[in-house]
Structure prediction request, 313 residues.
Amino acid sequence: MPNTFWIEVTGSGTAECDGLYCPSTAPAKKSESGTISSLGHWNGKMAWDRVDGKAERNPSISYSDSYKQWRIARLDGHLAYTTPGSEGDFWAAGPWGVYKKAVAPAPKVTIHESDPRKPNVVFVLGGPGAGKGTMCEVSEAQLGWCHLSAGDLLRAERKSGGPQADMINEFIKEGKIVPVEVTVGLIKTAMKASGKKNFLIDGFPRSLDNYEGWQKVMGSEANVAFMLFFECPLPVLEERILGRAKYSGRSDDNIESLRKRFTTYKNETMPIVELFRKQGKCVEVRTAYAAADPVAAAHACFHMIAHCSNANA
Prediction:
């Protein structure tokens, strides 16, 4: 099993042991029990290095096959805290005890599913009018996640009258996808300006090209937890969009633009949905209900988003 977990150590009596630990990148080496280590592992179990690189040897958190215990090392490599008699996985180990060259109390050890320093992102996709915005608004209010709509960011940029305004306006009217460099740049700027850590990005990525652009611009700066995909048939979407057009003031809330957007959605967005499905990172929600029911669908998604929040709190 690949080691993708991060460990946070706090409250140690030996304060130098506190800090953030990442999956070990120590080169293969034979342990005291004769086992050859592998990337992210030691003695056949997961192992971690200090992120700040201050340790004289790595891994700094590992399992001793000889003594049957997990251990946290000081900066000089001497053991500080151990879990005697623990033969299971790291998250089942405990309680931590103070070893010879350490000071009480033993630390609090927190396991993160990914780098806790990075923002968490959930992509939210679906046809126009599928209920994406409703779900994101409720999630923002109840969970504190920051809702960023790619479409809203593009429309705001267009209204600003900047050098990209005319180009964005033309793409939106034709139901075409705006160049990825523009969209990702706006999203990245909004994420930084928000001061938040958890983001629901609504209406992005809308194509494989969008996702490649995201990876190119964002790189490893954010943890993409999963995709929420809202599925809804065209007749229901048409009814919702016509109802929304009465008050939205959006130039693309009309049947002609909707059908162009739906065609683009099927041709260009579904391949990225399929990619996330294959990766096991696509949560699908059917929203072909009455107008108010997307709220119920939104609540069905909360446990997924809340889990992501708690895992990286």
